[in-house]
Amino acid sequence: MSTFITKLETTGDGPRLAVKDIIDVEGVPTTAGSRALERKAKPASADAPCLAGARAAGARIVGKANLHELATMPIGTNPWFGNPINPLDAALIPGGSSSGSAVAVANDDAEVALGSDTGGSVRIPSACCGTAGLKTTYGRVSLDGVGPLAPSLDTIGPMARDISGLVLGMQLLEPGFTVAAAAATTVGRVRTDSDPRIEAAIDDALRSAGFTVVPVEWEVLAPGNDIFTAIYFAEMWASDHQLYEDDPSGIGEDVAGMFAMVPAFAEGADAARGQLASWQASMLRLFDQVELLALPTLPIFPPRVDDLTPDSLLQTVIDITRHVSLFNAAGTPCTAQPVRTAGSPLPASLQLVGPHNSEELLLATAQVVEAATG
């Protein structure tokens, strides 16, 4: 049962919904994929408010989806509840932290899944599993009843096989949601040092969709990663260190390793917070020139689980997150969707990024890409 931590029996004919196990579902313990938390978790007394729209729509919650422990890492494996299996290739990481959510929709265990995205945790597993995901604007979806990781970065968003599933997911999160009447026409193409096959796949997708493409240099965005990292480690420690100190045997070795790195990164948190507003302003000025940004979600194809070692893990985390986590610092919404790759059996993933509260435009534009690329 590695896709789900808890399977739930449902009746009715509403859409099937998988819920990441950091979101409270009434009557079910919330474990966050951690043995330490499972040992003390009590059944939730109420649903998280973000589920209200889903309940009103008659959605059937099929289970609490597995995740990388405490939602801390982008790999998606779990030593306590098993590893969700990547549907594209069982040898590859499923991506995290919302790994079970991506696998659930890829395997048709649910039409929609809810994941959390603090540093890429909706977009990374979507990219690894060949599915679609939406990181919502910071603050757009309530975080009450959601286990905190880094509260100034945390978001909740939908995951699905395709863009229509993301639209349904947004309608469950925000009743009355509709996509924009028109898609974007001018897109800023952010040049990166990704695998050349991935870069080519992004260019091909944008060309097929018929957008006017304006070059954007990565250097405008790059400072956001250092700002994100310092804030993330400081807030992650504040959220979870007590659990770790109270029950270290119930925390996996990889997450314990993350806690060990806190002193190296978190000491810069105050300086990072001081730089955040000015960097956000410079990044958001890009939207004076273009409607959306486009770049690869991941710069590499998903690595093999067996290739991850304690020595390689940190570099892998840096590689996987470097195109996504900065947008958590920016608070902006982003999509991830699969696009065909020449010379690889695996898809690449296109990330579209918009200004705050532009989910309607993002999904309308992602629909155009999907229709143009198949």
Low-confidence segments = none
Number of strands: 11
Assign a percent range to the helix content. 25-40%
Estimate the strand proportion.
Answer: 15-25%
Q: Cα-atom Rg, whole angstroms?
A: 19 Å
Secondary structure class reads alpha/beta
The helix count comes to 13
Taken in chain order, the helices and strands follow as EEHHEHEHEEHEHEHHHHEHHEEH
Quote the distance from N terminus to C terminus. Answer: 32 Å
Shape: globular
Major sheet: size, sense and barrel closure? 11 strands, mixed
* Order of strands in the sheet with most strands: 1-3-2-4-6-5-10-11-9-7-8
Global mean pLDDT:
97
Describe the protein's architecture and organization.
The protein is an alpha/beta fold. The protein contains 13 helices and eleven strands. It has helices spanning 35-38, 52-56, 99-106, 123-129, 163-173, 196-209, 223-246, 253-260, 262-266, 269-284, 310-321, 325-330, 359-373; strands spanning 4-7, 16-20, 60-65, 112-116, 132-135, 156-160, 186-191, 212-217, 292-296, 334-339, 348-353. Strands 1-3-2-4-6-5-10-11-9-7-8 form an eleven-stranded mixed beta sheet, with helices on both faces. The longest helix is centred in the middle third of the chain and has 24 residues, at 223-246. The two termini are 32 Å apart. The model has no long low-confidence stretch (mean pLDDT 97).
